[in-house]
Here is the input.
Amino acid sequence: MGHAVTKPLLALSGVSKSFGPIEVLHSADIALHPGRVHALIGENGAGKSTMMKILAGYQPPTAGQVLLDGAPVSFASLGEAEAQGISLIHQEFNLAEQLTVEENIFLGAELRRGWFLDKAAMRAKSRELLGRLQCSVNPDRVVSSLSNSDKQMVEIAKALLRDTRVLIMDEPTAVLTRTETAILLDQVRALRDHGTAVLFTSHKLDEVVAIADDLTIMRDGARVWSGQARDLDEHQMAEAMVGREISTLYPPKSATRGARALEVAGFSVPGFASDIAFTLHKGEVLGIAGLIGSGRTETFEGLAGLRPATGDVRINGQPVTIRHPWEALAQGLAYLTEDRKTRGLLLDKGLRENLTLQALHKFSRWFVDQRAEQRALDQAVVDFDIRGSRDVSVGSLSGGNQQKLLFAKTMLSDPEILVIDEPTRGIDIGTKQQMYQFIRDLAAEGRAIIVISSEMQEVIGLSDRILVMRRGRISGELAGDAATEDAIVRLAMGVGQSAPLERTN
Amino acid sequence: MTTATLSPRKLQMSVIGPILALVILIILGALMNPNFLSAGNISNVLSRSAFIGIIAVGMTFVITAGGLDLSVGSMAAFVAGLMILVMNTALPVMGVGIPIVLLGMAVALAAGLIAGLLNGLLITRLGIEAFIVTLGSMGIYRSLVTWLADGGTLSLDFTLRTFYQPVYYGGLFGVSWPIIVFAIVVICGELLMRSTAFGRHCAAIGSNDQVARYSSVRVARIRLLTYVMLGILVGVATIMYVPRLGSASSATGLLWELEAIAAVIVGGTALKGGFGRVWGTVIGVLILTLIGNILNLTDLVSPYLNGAIQGAIIILAVVLQRERKPGQ
Here is the structure.
């Protein structure tokens, strides 16, 4: 009732978005009102980012309308949306790290007096902006020396300078500590009270409850719930986000547990994870769930010798010390990165060079046997169904084919223990299914497999057992029927297990 | 939106470019002076190319792996000075003969290896920029050789020099030693770059060192090895160079680092790393040496403009290289 007192400032009406043949957003609606905070929640891949990008003019909708002050608009460029007072703050900060706070705020919009910069005016204005945000950071500080929450404030100050009426924030608290989050939320409230329309996404439902006036829940590219945030509690939100049975996307589990392959105890990666302990068996798929920033990737990068780490690690019962990636590989442990474009593949090289990079020693005595490499590529193309021309650089393959190539590359070194970080990020459903089958087959061969994933369904559908991480620690273990999305969400977010569902408001 | 395809046609253009430039230069030279193609002149050009060429082969690996070494010119001067000093000191004990020459050569190779190792360790273990480390060591070696020579010139003992001279002026079947050594270094370098895991790893590291690290490549060790190899090759070049003049001073090897880098780039190796070819570097060296040679043999353009023309060629080569990857 108090909902519709104002006209929406910025809205999407029946907006769809397709990338090639795949529609990722199905006729979605959302309305942002001045002086209200709107939370957009949903699982990864639910279409949140796409909606935000369309709202901020980064991408045009395939169908439907973007309404600004009730009138349809189409932004030809980023600059146009910004000129209309719409700002999007990315999850990764978009700041020049080596410049000062003030230089960043005014970057590209410097105040001038004649030919020279008007430093006095800029100083006064940046003090005023930071003051409005109750941020006490010195404008002369270099941005790289700031905490994450202060960087967030600089981003917001930048947006304010450009007379922002709509502020869109993509997971602003993902990289913040609890205290930093509290400060940020206070300042978002201050902005709201100034009449700004705020849209933000978060995986942390307690924040949503704390700050949101309006709420939209997305699932699989469609809106599944929309209304006032106070109508739902955290459990209901989680249920609405999840609310679906796991399809036959996943191959049947054939858990024939073998001997212990990997035993980890008291394992810590300084700054990211501590007190990690678990056991992994041959023939088992162990899923690792948890929010982005919960230390999942860092823990296993530490285990693979890619980060400094301490702790007690045993492989096949023997204590091992792994300080470098090649030492891990020598012990039969390989880590398949989540970041295939900057850490997984050489984008400007061909398929053959990429395929054999990790296992090159197998193809060379004195010289690299290029014929054997070619045979290996032929085999990998068949085994992993890699499509596309072989004469192109890997950068021009599709994401799915890149992922298959990365998989083939890692398997060429024949690891006994395989850690796969985000096996299906950014690839289509058909390729996903293939990847799941590959992973299951490897487990059936008796390899020990760890799958790290942000997609809860994937973890559940694929794993024999699930560890949930939260803030650098393992917060729980789930197996069998206990492994539900609801249970994972609770462990990942630290929501109490025993809270009865009826206890609303 | 077609990203850099490795289509055969484009590849051929980048392959043909430097060869074409070399052929044009040779035709030009032959037209301008009949002596240009004489055996004497060709031998002269190749021998002169050998010093820079041997160093440039090592530089090709350093640059391909995403590094840089500015210190090679001063390193050569320092190694030459040290070699002369050790040989002169050992002369009363060892006398003139093959052993003392071998001692000198061993000193040169060891000094080069240690100098390269120091550069490499500072870059890989302490994580300092290659540009900074080698800019520093460039100054240090240059200053050390000036100090060793006490501001003047270090000269090899006359009798020793006469004995050692055939290493530059002599040869096998009419081909001088520097050319033979240069050829061996090039063949080994080409094989190493093209057909071994080491060469492949160099290109992978230069292309994206994170990917190499995540692929269990021993990034630091490979990088270190490229600098060590370059240091040893500087020692080899010095062994050939000392018998030519029999002396070392603060002016020895001046600007060699830039000539070597220029040869690598003109030959088609990417300055930012990730792609390198040794035979291209050889063509680069020949192009740069030929320009000087042609200017000396003809009076069309003053030989003093040698540097200007070389500079223009270098810039042109990089412009052509950039056109290989349109629309980044």
Summary: Chain B has 14 helices and four strands. The two ends of chain B are 10 Å apart (CA to CA). Confidence is low (pLDDT under 50) at residues 1-10, 324-328 of chain B.
